Amino acid sequence: MSELSINPGIEIRDSERELDRFRRRLATLGFFVLTLFGLLFLRFFYLQVIQHSHYSTLAEANRISVLPIAPHRGIIVDRNGVMLAHNYSAYTLEITPSKLQSLEETIDGLSGIIEITPRDRRRFRKLLEESKSFESLPIRTRLSDEEIARFAVHRYRFPGVEAKARLFRQYPQGEMFSHVVGHIGRINKREVEQLEDDGRLANYRGSDYIGKTGVEQSYEKFLHGTTGVEEVEVDSGGRAVRTLSRTPPVSGNNLVLNLDAKLQEVAYNAFGDRRGALVAIDPATGGILAFVSKPGFDPNLFVDGIDPQSWSELNGSPDKPLLNRASAGTYPPGSTFKPFMALAALFYGKRTPQQVISDPGYFMFGGHRFRDSRPVPLGMVDMYRSIVMSSDVYYYMLASELGIDPLAQFMALFGFGSRTGIDISGEAAGILPSTDWKWRRYKQKWYAGETISVGIGQGYNSYTPLQLASATATVANNGVMFRPHIVNHVEDIRTREKTLIESQPLRELAIKPEHFKVVRDAMAGVNKEGTGARVFANAPYTSAGKTGTAQVIAIKQGEKYVESRVAEEHRDHSLFIVYAPADKPTIALAVIAENAGFGARAAAPVARQVLDYYLLGKLPAVTGGKR
Questions:
Q1: Same-domain status, 135 and 269
Q2: What Å distances lie between residue 409 and 341, 347, 476, 481, 510, CA to CA?
Q3: Nearest to residue 278, comparing CAs of 606, 579, 549?
């Protein structure tokens, strides 16, 4: 027997079978790898061939930055070319809050390089509350060359802070034109939504400002211009390398106003430190020659965003400088209402010019005694004398005979109680009382005794100086009423073509010329021999006017009004309406001096200074007066 033996623990390998298994595994792995490469190839083919155009565009977009270029805003000048609103270029220091780790630390660090006042911080905080965190907001404006140089040296320390060249709006005339020219301000959320609804939002890319009030707001579409576009090649860090193409912006159009800046200055200064308003109109066109509301405010405060302290001072001032008294302030017209009452009497046939009534100094109605403001009764009074000497009794009696509704219907013809349609927003409608008005307002019926006070411009009567001026211009123009407008024409910045803002006749009143003549002659008599005679003594021109005194608080029956015993804010308002020259009027105006007493004392002297300058070129030696 052989010594060779087989160990049963050792397995005899089948090499052929193992090799076959290995080959199958290798084939499977190879197929899997080929499949992956196939998928990669297909994806590569899809991206490089099928989607080539799409990704080429995206790559180009990453390489090219499209930047909007804000247009220059159009300038605003008066009729003689005096600058009222213009632009200038300066650097501003801007912060993008979303790029900062600590806003306070950044501002504190900047203040060590460039002066940042508490007012700057307050204004920035207000802007931050109204804006989005990714927006660039100014912390300092109008930087000097030295400040720009200091910041450039330390710029690396302040990521998210940039010095940018910006256009700034400036109002060189300050508060004198604040209510009529208005001002611009940063665009807010509501305005963005409105621009989007109007389809104009794309044109405001790159623009931070929009007209807020006055002409700046109402003529925004003319002043803003068209935004340009610049394509810039940028590197991986987002820095501009070179400009590829540029579509320049189109500057906004210029506005030329009907206003006379010097006339405005004379009128503004004539009020002294009194509160009040004045509106002067060209009767033949409706063009506004002067539009004063005093006190005003500095519109430059609003351009960069007004700080909370300044806003609080303006908003909380008892003098209400933010109120546009000329078109939004409403007042009883007082005796300036009487010429229109006389026209109503002639229109309805309730009086003839020669008809005489007795003025005993009071009028009795329903057991109530309505007193005349004059200390001495006038006696026998016809229509001419009722206006010249300002008889209250004549118009108490006339109002009672007319009745409130016929009176309201007639006064509506002159625009009382409705907006004139002037080309700035915020105009008040005023109150023209009637039975329907009182029921809608108070759910109460009208009492006949309430009509009496309406006849002398008191009671519920409440109108704007603009309405009074427009109505006076209509009398001066023999019943032809024009829509008041501030802008004379729009000038195209490129072609210099002028687009005239056409005078728009609103209506021609169906009042007989002879009736207008009666009232016009009486108004001329006011400044010759009546309540305005002293103020217009020795005037080298003829004028026609009417003084007015409007109560601020009611005086109880039996009591006597003593001005010195009444708080200043409760004293009567002083009013005056006038046009000149009396035979061929070229200017009509209305004046109110708040709490200044009798019309001939305060309002009429303001009107005299304005007419002296407008008709004669004469500047007053001393202007204004004290309250």
A1: no
A2: 12, 12, 21, 16, 13
A3: 606
Structural domain boundaries enclosing 15: 8-50
Residue 60 maps to a domain? no
Q: Give the pLDDT of residue 626.
A: 42
8 Å CB contact between 380 and 358: yes
State how far the Cα of 154 lies from the Cα of 179, in Å rounded to an integer.
42
Q: Give me the pLDDT at residue 131, please.
A: 67
Tell me, what CATH number does 112's domain have?
Answer: 3.90.1310.10
Nearest CA to 82 out of 262, 268, 280 is that of 262
Beta bridge partners of 363: 370
pTM of model > 0.85: no
Q: Do 242 and 292 belong together in one domain?
A: no
CB 366, CB 465: distance < 8 Å: no
- CB-based contacts of 191, cutoff 8 Å, min separation 6: 210
| Lookup: tokens for 299 | 């519109």
Catalytic site residue 335? yes
What is the model's pLDDT at position 2? 46
Structural domain includes residue 395: yes
Handedness of CA 198, 200, 205, 211 (dihedral sign): negative
Domain termination residue (choose one: 222, 257, 292): 257
Backbone phi, then psi, for 523, in 5-degree steps?
Answer: -65, -35
Q: How many CB atoms lie within 10 A of CB 280?
A: 29
**Pick the catalytic residue: 131, 335, 400, 574?**
335
Answer yes or no: is 623 within a domain.
no
Q: Are strands 254-257 and 76-77 parallel, antiparallel or unpaired?
A: parallel
Low-confidence ranges of the chain (pLDDT < 50): 1-6, 10, 623-627
DSSP character for 253? Answer: P
Q: What is the pLDDT of residue 623?
A: 43
Using N-to-C axis directions, what is the helix angle for 435-442 and 404-413, rounded to 10°?
Answer: 100
DSSP 136-201: -EEEEEEE-HHHHHHHHHHGGG-TTEEEEEEEEEE-TTGGGGHHHH--EEE--HHHHHHHHHTT-G
Distance CA(588)–CA(477), nearest Å, equals: 10
Contact 211/201 with Cβ under 8 angstroms?
A: no
Which of 370, 351, 349 lies closest to 359, judged by CA?
A: 370
Q: What's the one-letter identity of residue 238? A: G
Residue 55 is assigned to a structural domain of this protein: no
CA–CA dist 341, 347 (Å, integer):
10
User: Quick one: which of 283, 306, 339 has its CA closest to 184?
Assistant: 306
**Residue 297: strand, helix, or coil:** coil
Q: Which run of H or of E encompasses 118?
A: helix 118-130
Contact 626, 273 (CB under 8 A): yes
- 11: tokens are 């397995």
| End position of a domain, from candidates 257, 283, 313 | 257
CA distance 621 to 615: 16
Rounded Cα distance, 271 and 267, in Å:
7
Asked whether the beta carbons of 439 and 379 are under 8 A apart, the reply is no
Residue 402 and residue 295 share a domain: yes
pLDDT for 559: 59
540: left (phi over 0), alpha (psi -120 to 50) or beta: alpha
Structure tokens at 248: 């320049």
Domain count, the chain: 3
